[in-house]
Specification:
Largest sheet: none
Distance between the termini: 29 Å
Structural class: mainly alpha
Order of helices and strands: HH
Number of helices: 2
Helix content: 10-25%
Shape: flat
Strand content: under 5%
Length: 82
């Protein structure tokens, strides 16, 4: 591959997958997200590492489980060495 791909991670807060038109919700009006999914990848069966958003995002960005570095609440965010 000579050209680097463009990668965009869309990680909204409080946005369930079943609220998207391209995943089958007839009442959803999400044309821009539907078009983005047509040109890229959309995951319909995923799991989070923690039910609280900040620890889950810390885990997603580092690859570590939230408890490894103490990310158990909204107040313990990523550290400079992570």
């Amino acid at each position: 591959m000579t050209k680097k791909p463009h990668i965009v991670m869309f990680i909204p807060d409080h946005y369930r997958g079943d609220t998207l038109g391209h995943l089958g919700n007839q009442g959803a009006i999400t044309p821009h997200l539907d078009n983005l999914a047509k040109e890229g990848v959309s995951f319909s069966n995923t799991y989070c590492q923690n039910p609280v958003c900040a620890p889950s995002r810390c885990s997603f960005m580092t690859g570590w489980y939230p408890h490894v570095r103490g990310h158990r609440s909204q107040s313990h965010l990523l550290q400079p060495d992570e």
